[in-house]
Specification:
The complex is a heterodimer of chains A (743) and B (267). Chain A is α/β, with parallel strands linked by helices and 743 residues long. Chain A folds into three domains: 291 residues, no CATH class; 217 residues, no CATH class; 193 residues, Double Stranded RNA Binding Domain (2-Layer Sandwich), CATH 3.30.160. In chain A, 55% of the residues lie in helices and 9% in strands. The N terminus of chain A is likely disordered. Chain B is mainly β. Chain B has one domain: Porin, CATH 2.40.160.20. Helices cover 13% and strands 48% of the residues of chain B. Chain B has two helices and 14 strands. In chain B, the strands form three sheets. In chain B, strands 1-5-6-10-11-12-13-14 form an eight-stranded antiparallel barrel. Chain B has a two-stranded antiparallel sheet with strand order 2-3. In chain B, a hairpin with a 5-residue loop joins β12 and β13. The longest helix of chain B has 19 residues. In chain B, 32% of the residues are buried. Classes of the chains: A alpha/beta (743), B mainly beta (267). At the A-B interface, β9 and α29 of A face β12 of B.
Chain lengths: 743, 267
């Protein structure tokens, strides 16, 4: 129930309904950390509930429930590391907000604006007075006036208390109260969305009035609805140019590129009876009518046109970066292409392309490509090109292409270790998955397609100069050339020092052999008996004695604690979870002391206002680990950047861990049957009593320790113990984990 | 399964050596419970039983002075059987512990006595608490913890071997002539002699060891055991029957099914 209501809460306040994307090297928070980020949720709830009860006595229960759900939901976002404050984008948006407030004195003080690092085109408000603006939205806008209108819309949501109203209405509908006692589920859904649309329309109207008081150009508003309508498309629409991938004197065969694209089509007057927002056509018409009636003019930029484009560029780079973190490689390749066209001297798009090709190759080689490149048939517009290309490239070809591109990047940026690591890793994959060695690569000037045709014509025109067998062999050779992957072996002309490349292949081959050994099972007949025995011995030792990693210091990032009780109506026990989380963090520190492990916990709860550096580290690490998780067990994942290296230096360790505890309580099944059987069997009575009087409990402990320099997963534990989450159990489990790390 | 008399002398040293071998086994990096690998504790395997396992016979009664038959049938009697146990548990690996224990108990029990009358018909008689069973058991258990549990916390299966030595003190008053009326009118009755008997017990236990704080652990388990009679000490025909029967039945009664509740302190 709570989940449903909270989902309504988010949907009802969102300005836009779709998602989109863009890129940049990373925006950073600055200054003092606002209290919103560091205050305990329980304290926020208590404060809000006290204020509300003082203010009004109506709907006490629903309001109380709302504050709990709302605060936990918002804090989950605030403490995810995805939200930025005092950064370039937030500062700029705040300046626009000040322009609006200057013209509208009724806007209350205390509204905070934060930027969410998300490619989704969205902005939303909370009842606490926080307006969140996604980078995906900024990336799509055309001018400052559009941003101002969006802010006006969100300010109205806050001032009119729409979030609370929407929640209470939705709660009444779902709980069949008042007028909804005999309403069917479909009618309830329709009633909920109808109410939501009413609030959105009100926010549009009042927001527009607020906007019209400013000196922004009112005719810019029409563009907002285009942004909204096409938010599912990339931030620009340009035909894809394959030359960004053809950095040497080679050509990717034409068959990999689409010549016809699916039309862009979206109906702005679609049926919105089940939508939380009115359709775009309705909103556009209403806005245009009011604008025309107002007959005012204004400027598209009041703060700064230059700043707007700088901020938008930042947002677009951020979108690209997020697409890469989310392993949305087809979208990311298209974003990188647009940014490279727009900013040809910026190295970031090029480096991004190197990473995209590398990532696609890794997933292709483990037959998981579809999860990172998506389906091209569903796409509209020019972005279909990149979807099609990455879909059609064979694993061997994409690996060779990624190698070629990263060799090119290595020539441009020889000091970048990440590129070098990727090259070695690709060489390893070529050996491991495709049996391609250095000798298979062609370093001579590639023969272009038209030249092949020309040679072929020569064969026919001058038959006397060639023997029958020459012609047969030439035909064979030509056939090989057009084979699916051969072209990719012939793209290495001017790709760098051949001796150096050969060295990379040698390193890759060694890594490949190690991987073969590591992945081999103990009963693998290819493994010799000595290796089998060693491996079996290691597994046994690991089980009986644990690992002995000998690590002195670990930074634990964002530990979490969740309690789910399926025997109660409120399954996710959030209040209890937070209390336990606070207690668990203290316990972890004590346990670390007992094991002599130097443990540093990075979590917003422990940050002081001045810990901005820690906050940015926290944010960076969470992004890093999200990307790392996407790569799963692909041990050749390498994403070491200068920022990561800086973290290692500052914290004095390269070992960072993520952990979480989940306690689940489930009802026992067939309790009566078991009780009867135990009585019947007599000897089973004690077990029967135990079974009948207790609930099924599980405590899951998740722990992942990474070497963030290499991306190596040093230790992974996903334990499930069928006991309640007593301190003793948790202490015992963490003592074991820390002991294995430290010993 | 029969063991020679001298085997007892060998078994004790074997058990002792085994436990020493365990304790000197240096798995230095095994965590134990918060770094503590030795647990000292007390537990009570116990069971409430209906007296359904008493020998079935027809002489559960006697004739009083008025020649009326008095029924002494005790089928419905409820017995609470328990065996206080002191234990030392050693965390052997991350997934197992080895436990050494001593049980000392001496309940008064009813023992079926087999007698024969003049017609060689077998009779038996079961008066109350006429035999005290002084018992000392020593044994070892090997506990294997389930799944992701880390010893010594979590659900476990244990397999144990226990040596039980029983000495029966017979309450001669019960058999005195003053109490003639308590025993059957049969002839050739023999008063049982105090005697000693031994058993091995193989046991299996499914249990859960949990924490009651950083310094106290609680153990609850469901145990099944099978006694294997080893030997009695004396060899008169009557006493052989008596000891064999009494030892086996009482060991079965006490150990076959048990619920164990115990506490331990990590050291």
């Amino acid at each position: 129930m709570s989940k449903l209501l909270f989902s309504f809460l988010l949907v009802s306040i969102s300005f836009f309904a779709f998602s989109q994307d863009h890129s940049y090297e990373g925006i950073k928070s600055k200054g003092t950390i606002p209290e919103d980020f560091t205050k305990f949720t329980l304290d926020k709830i208590k404060e809000a509930q006290e204020q509300a009860l003082y203010a009004t006595k109506s709907n006490r229960k629903a309001r109380s429930e709302f504050y709990e759900i709302s605060n936990f939901g918002v804090d989950q976002l605030l403490q995810s590391g995805r939200v930025c404050f005092n950064d370039t984008i937030s500062n700029y948006v705040n300046q626009v907000f000040e322009e609006i407030r200057f013209a509208n004195k009724s806007i209350p003080l205390g509204i905070r604006i934060y930027t969410v690092k998300s490619p989704v085109v969205n902005a939303f408000t909370t009842d606490q007075g926080i307006i969140f603006i996604n980078t995906g939205l900024i990336a799509q806008l055309e001018n400052e006036a559009q941003l101002a209108f969006i802010l006006c819309h969100e300010i109205v949501h806050y001032m009119e208390n729409h979030v609370m109203e929407g929640f209470i209405a939705s709660s009444e509908i779902s709980k069949s109260k008042n007028d909804y006692k005999r309403t069917s589920n479909i009618d309830k859904e329709l009633a909920t969305t109808r109410y939501s649309r009413k609030l959105e329309t009100e926010a549009d109207k009042k927001g527009l009035k607020m906007f019209l008081k400013t000196t922004y150009d009112p005719f810019a508003i029409d563009g907002v609805f285009d942004v909204l309508l096409y938010s599912y498309l990339p931030f620009d629409e340009l035909p894809f140019d394959s030359s960004i991938l053809e950095i040497g004197n080679y050509q990717i065969p034409d068959g990999y590129f689409l010549t016809e694209f699916k039309d862009i089509h979206v109906d702005e007057n679609e049926d919105d009876s089940r939508h939380t927002h009115p359709n775009i056509g309705t909103r556009r018409r209403m806005a245009n009518k009011l604008v025309n009636e107002a007959k005012v003019s204004g400027s598209k930029f009041l703060v700064s046109e230059k700043d707007f484009y700088a901020v938008r560029a930042a947002a677009r780079y951020e979108v690209l970066r997020l697409q890469m973190i989310n392993t949305q490689y087809s979208e990311a390749l298209y974003s990188a292409f647009i940014l490279q066209k727009e900013y040809p001297n910026n190295p970031l798009p090029k480096i991004a392309i190197g990473e995209i090709l590398y990532g696609t190759a890794l997933f292709s080689n483990t037959r998981d490509k579809r999860t990172v490149v998506g389906y091209y048939k569903k796409q509209q517009g020019y972005i279909q090109s990149t979807f099609y290309l990455l879909n059609k490239l064979q694993p061997e070809s994409i690996t060779l292409l990624a190698l070629r591109y990263n060799l090119y990047l290595h020539q441009l940026y020889p000091e970048n270790n990440g590129i070098e690591n990727r090259i070695t890793s690709l060489c390893k994959d070529l050996d491991y998955h495709h049996g391609v060695s250095f000798d298979d690569l062609v370093f001579s000037i590639p023969v272009k397609e038209e030249e092949i045709v020309s040679q072929s014509t020569d064969l026919i025109e001058t038959p006397k100069t060639k023997s029958k067998y020459d012609r047969i062999n030439a035909r064979k050779k030509k056939k090989e050339k057009v084979s699916k992957t051969q072209w990719a072996k012939e793209i290495f002309y001017q790709s760098g020092d051949e001796d150096e490349i050969e060295e990379y292949f040698e390193k890759g081959k060694k890594l490949s052999e190690i991987k073969k050994y590591q992945l081999a099972k103990t009963d693998d007949p290819d493994l010799n008996s000595e290796a089998r025995q060693q491996k079996a011995k290691y597994e046994k030792l690991k089980r009986n004695k644990g690992r002995a990693l000998g690590i002195e210091k670990v930074v634990l990032v964002d530990p979490y604690y969740n309690i789910y009780n399926y025997t109660k109506e409120e399954v996710h026990q959030q209040v209890k979870s937070e209390k336990e989380e606070i207690q668990a963090m203290d316990n972890l520190e004590k346990i670390a002391q007992k094991t002599h492990l130097n443990l540093n916990i990075l979590t917003p709860y422990k940050f002081a206002g001045s810990d901005i550096s820690k906050y940015n580290d926290f944010s960076l690490l969470n992004e890093w680990v999200n990307e790392r998780y996407s790569f799963g067990n692909r041990s050749n994942y390498t994403s070491s950047t200068e920022e990561i290296q800086d973290l290692v230096d500052r914290y004095g360790t390269k070992y960072f861990a993520w952990t979480g505890i989940v306690n689940t309580t489930l009802p026992r099944e067939s309790k009566l049957l078991v009780a009867l059987y135990s009585i019947y069997s007599i000897v089973g009575i004690p077990l029967g009593i135990y079974y009948a009087t207790t609930k099924e409990k599980h405590t899951k402990i998740y722990f992942a320790l990474f070497n963030i320099e290499t991306g190596q997963l040093v230790m992974y534990e996903n334990r499930d113990v069928s006991m309640s989450d007593s301190d003793g159990l948790l202490n015992s489990q963490y003592y074991d984990i820390f002991n294995q790390i430290r010993n | 399964m029969k063991f020679s008399y001298y085997s007892k002398k060998i078994l004790f040293p074997i058990l002792l050596v085994s436990l020493l071998a365990v304790s000197i086994h240096t798995y230095g990096q095994v965590s134990g419970y918060l770094g503590k690998r030795i647990l000292v504790g007390f537990e009570v395997p116990c069971i409430v039983k209906l007296n359904l396992m008493s020998p079935i016979d027809y002489t559960y009664g006697y004739y009083n002075e008025n020649h009326n038959f008095v029924n002494t049938n005790e089928y419905a009697k409820v017995n609470f059987l328990y065996r206080p146990t002191f234990k030392v548990e050693y965390v052997f690996t991350r997934k197992s512990t080895v436990q050494m224990f001593v049980r000392i108990f001496n309940p008064k029990v009813d023992i079926p006595i087999f007698t024969r009358d003049s017609n060689s018909q077998t009779l038996s008689y079961t008066p109350k608490s006429r035999v005290k069973m002084n018992t000392i058991n020593i044994g070892v258990k090997y506990k294997l913890y389930f799944g992701d549990a880390v010893s010594p916390i979590g659900f476990y299966n244990s397999f144990g071997l226990e040596y039980s030595r029983m000495k029966f003190d017979v309450d001669t008053n019960t058999f005195s002539t003053d109490n003639y009326q308590y025993w059957n009118q049969g002839s050739n009755y023999a008063i049982p002699e105090p005697t000693t008997t031994s058993n091995f017990i193989a046991s299996y236990c499914f249990g859960k060891q949990s924490t009651l704080g950083d310094h106290l652990l609680m153990n609850i388990g469901f145990e099944l055991a099978i006694p294997i009679r080893l030997k009695k000490s004396e060899e008169t025909v009557a006493e052989e029957d008596w000891a064999k029967t009494a030892g086996s039945i009482q060991t079965w009664k006490h150990s076959f099914v048990n619920v164990t509740l115990g506490f331990s302190l990590p050291l």
